[in-house]
Design a protein that fits this description.
It is a multi-pass membrane protein. This protein has about 300 residues and is α/β, with parallel strands linked by helices. Helices cover about 35% and strands about 20% of the residues. The protein has two domains: about 1-85 and about 180-299, Rossmann fold (3-Layer(aba) Sandwich); about 100-180, no CATH class.
């Protein structure tokens, strides 16, 4: 796999997605260089997955601006989809428990060979195309840190028999086969132990250090210097009401300033705004996120 840095820069200003019953998220601001690790933190229902889908061109934004690798959203959604890939997103990019690891890899390599290249590439000798597919798969597995020899039945292991971290690595490897400039991973640390969480972040830091921009939804951001991997800039984006962001609009994760986002105030004079109930804000946010996902069909 080509390890030349080719990640996509990510910028957003006042970015928001709205469903029929309210905002999934709004007023998100991001500035991330190519090869950054962007950690999207927030409670369940705060619009984290909607933000991931919107920034990868799979959900239409309602306000603000954003660019992925210089491609503006929502005007260039199709182009953004072509340079991004999803991993571990329920209902969109998830593993089939009835299939084996090998079946998933072969299917993804076949799709990449059929639709991911030029017509000229399809006309090359079959042996050459097979060798290229094997190289793509091997490179993706190595980058994701998935060693097939350690699995219970090797490449014939069913997905249902994988440990959670192994399943995450497989999902990431499948996404990497397409050579995306931005890799978006949902529920990165869901139900992982502390040790598994450190290893997951080490994998994602490694991908970012190799040049791919990584956007990862999480419940806890990566700890600074404790996951055993060197990396570049780490940008933390918080979803949810602004009161969930401690100590002002910025915080520091690792060695980088994090750009945070939350619900925008309804007035330019916050001191005159009527007090709001935190629980009501969270309920509205959850309903908006659920509606936005339903509108997009999680596709």
């Amino acid at each position: 796999m080509d390890s030349t840095p080719r990640g996509a820069a990510v910028t957003a200003t006042g970015f928001g997605v709205k469903g029929p019953r309210g905002w999934a998220f709004r007023n998100i601001g991001i500035t991330a260089a190519p090869g950054s690790l962007i950690a999207v933190q927030g409670p369940s229902g705060s619009g984290r997955t909607c933000l991931l889908l919107a920034l990868t061109g799979r959900m239409t934004s309602a306000e603000g601006t954003a660019e992925i690798g210089g491609l503006p959203l929502p005007r260039k959604m199709a182009a953004v989809r072509s340079v991004t890939a999803l991993a571990h997103v329920p209902g969109v990019a998830e593993l089939d428990p009835a299939l084996t690891v090998g079946e998933h890899l072969r299917e993804r390599a076949l799709l990449q060979g059929r639709f991911g290249g030029s017509l000229r590439a399809l006309l090359r000798p079959r042996q050459e195309r097979r060798a290229e597919a094997r190289a793509l798969v091997d490179g993706a597995l190595e980058a994701a840190g998935l060693d097939l020899e350690t699995l219970p039945k090797g490449i014939r292991t069913s997905v249902r028999d994988l440990e959670r971290l192994e399943a995450l690595r497989l999902s990431v490897a499948l996404a990497l086969i397409g050579g995306p400039r931005l890799l978006a991973v949902d529920d990165t640390d869901l139900k992982l132990s502390d040790d598994e969480r450190r290893r997951a972040w080490a994998m994602l830091r490694g991908l970012a250090a190799a040049g791919t921009t990584v956007l990862a939804v999480c419940s806890e951001p990566p700890a600074d210097g404790t996951d055993g991997a060197a990396g570049g800039e780490v940008v933390l984006v918080r979803t949810g009401p602004p009161e969930a962001v401690p100590d002002g609009p910025k915080t520091v994760v690792g060695d980088a300033d994090a750009v945070t986002g939350g619900a925008a105030p309804e007035t330019d004079a916050p001191e005159q705004a009527a007090p709001q109930n935190d629980a009501d804000d969270r309920d509205d946010n959850e309903e908006g996120a659920a509606d936005a996902l339903a509108e997009a069909g999680r596709a």
